Fold these 4 entries.
Entry 1:
Amino acid sequence: MGRIIKGANGGFAGKAGSVIGARWRGIDYIKGLMNKSNKAATPEQIQTRERFLKMINVLGKIKRSLEVGFRTTGLRTCTGVNYAMGRNLKQALVGEYPDLNFDFSKLELSTGGLSNTDAASMELSGEREVTVSWNTKQSTGDLTAEKRAKLKAYVFLINEQRGLTLVSGGEKTWLDEKVVFDIPASFVGETLHGYLFFISPESVSTSATMYIGNVNI
């Protein structure tokens, strides 16, 4: 794929011979048509495909949240989920195909220098209820107490077995101290991993992701 630098004619959209033109996020692109191949996939190609499928099974379900979490990177030439895929394929998938496994403690859903809490926890607080709470007295940054109070919390519970995610996306603020999740009956007997990050009131700045831990339902 190539990027079209503005000239006399500019970019174009649609198919022209063996190439396709398109405009995305204000940038004009051109790419060649794919050639079908009857060759069997190589072991390297199979591993790359399986790694991608395993990661997108988790991240693909929280695309909108990833647009928020990686907003400070600019995201001019890729989407939030694509940026997250690039980072997490390198650090959160371990092993070799067919024995690929997640290291859930290394999964990143955001990046940035905004203040985060210095401690958070998650626990079963009912038969099918999980409470995620965080310390509001201390933070990892130098924001004033007044500014910290306005930060919006993004909290995620990712089901290890299914790849499904429960999300609290900005409904709670720093001062709420906790989020309570009602867990579906179908999750009983499975493991949930917790994550937390904060965003500024204007949704401009974000904190890095905090991995909270896991609970068995």
Entry 2:
Amino acid sequence: MKNFLLLMLLLTAARVRTVAQDQDNDDVQLWPDVSVTIRLNSTAALNVFGTMRFGQDVGARITHQAGAAVNFSVNDYLSIVPAYRHIWSYPTPTRRSQENRYFVDVTPRFPLPKGFTLLDRNRGEVRDISDQVSWRYRNRLQIEKALSWYEHELTPYFASEFHYESRYHAWNRKMMWVGMRVPVSKHVTLDVHYAHTWDARARPGYWHLIGIMTRMEF
């Protein structure tokens, strides 16, 4: 009987420790973004953007970012976007870093039946993180459809994204997104979304992301 009670006590302690570890490996984050696009001509647009990201269950600011890009529309079915982003990160009081990120997006668009559209964004990044240079490939597949609701055009979408990181020689991160773009006025659109992230190399490795992007176009 004593051995049985001791075994149950050990199992209970192990379970409590596992639950605590799982809780430490989860985070809820808020990503408010602002993007301003200025049309240069019929095929090119300048885009500047900035964001702050709040983590630790939305209790602390963990990064802020700023950057610029030029969007080239090759035709109705292909866009190419070279871009730069600078990132200041401070996930904990003792961990701080800065990153210069240079990247190019190549995104073909495929019209599908029933008014759906498939986008296949391919992003190659060169990352200089505190003088350590690496590269990353990100592939995001997104399916969307424009809908009319009381004379407003809403665009719900679902996306999945996978990251290959040269530092680890592995596909270390995957993300699932569900969201909707909602026009507020002629020049302003809100992109509201939820994403779930799994990252085998990060701590915490499971993120619940709530994103609110304000897009302004002129």
Entry 3:
Amino acid sequence: MALKSTVFRVELAVSDLDRHYYADHSLTLARHPAETDLRMMVRLVAFARHAHPDLRFGRGLCQDEEPDLWRREADGTVRLWVTLGQPDPRRLRKACGHAGAVVVYTYQPRAARVWWEQHGEELAQLAGCAYTTCRTPPRPAWSTWSSRAWRSPPPCRRTPCGWPTAGARSSSTARRRAERPPPAC
């Protein structure tokens, strides 16, 4: 018998001063049995960084043709395509052809470095694609967030990658355009 997805409910308060976007989001995340807590939390961080009323979670691990997050206009045009991990460059090339902007979040710095070494030349040629590597925060900082119902604290200082820093060591991220590889750990 196949394992079922675990459903998580999240109340997320987004205050993005750079984009002047302020909203509360009631989200329902389904974690695939093969998905780790860390990957699910990176999906949530990516949602918070690109929050928009039209931003939706894709089928992710279940469907290779869909991104982890995407924003579609009413006419079906894909404005934003967000994917996690180290996707195949052919998949990214296809995404760049369909979407106005493509963002890749890698969350395992060593694997990202190897991925970039293997595919860096091909990835550098993709226009409209941005790469972000989230360094993994200490496990106690994120493992407690993955309870099945979670509410973001109202006054929450955030590091560039979006990890709350309340009592935890700060983590960092570096956004790079295609000319440079994601940062090494």
Entry 4:
Amino acid sequence: MRPTSSTPPSRRGPQAGEFDAPKQERTRQQLERILEEADRLFAERGYRATKLSDIAAAVPCSMSAIYDRFGGKAELLRYMHRRGAEEAVALVDALEPLGDTERGDPGDLRDTLHQALEMGLAIIRRYRGRRRASLERMYDDPELAEIELGIQNGVVEAGRRYLLAYRHQFDHPDPELAASQAMRLLMAMVEQRESTLPAPGGATLSEQQFIAEVERMVLGYLGIAHDSDD
């Protein structure tokens, strides 16, 4: 007789867009509520302290509505992280220079960087819960870590293309490298700003002060004079 394991097989969980979108409006709304409440509870409590029953009660919905679609909490988080990644990369990829690109004039990076930073902060805030839960969980979940790496690479690549539209303004010997590193700097600063951990040294800046300082750092690295330095 073939031996059986007492441990159920691990479920990968659906990838974003992998299962058919609910056909009924009520079901679509319920799915969005599950994701919203999971995000909120993960942000407030973290991954380990949040139970699927807590999410179901907050929606409200039955436990089977979550289990039937995702299979468990780990699978739900993977789906949320994949979906958030697709949306974040799409938003960054949609950034467009403000100048006349058809005539080869993308404009001035200093005119668009502020808006890009505001958008980055908004993205991190929107997905704060799944970010906190993923950081808590990924060392025990190689698949989640792989998703995170894909997010980082996808956002860097989308942002790199945006920055390279202004390469004529760079004062750097390697514009390609500069654009990639500038994006990594931006991501690190924005992540730290919106982290659930306290700021090092108790440093506190208003949002506008923070954006102004990050602008200075990025423009300085790229060799572009800040407006106030002109």
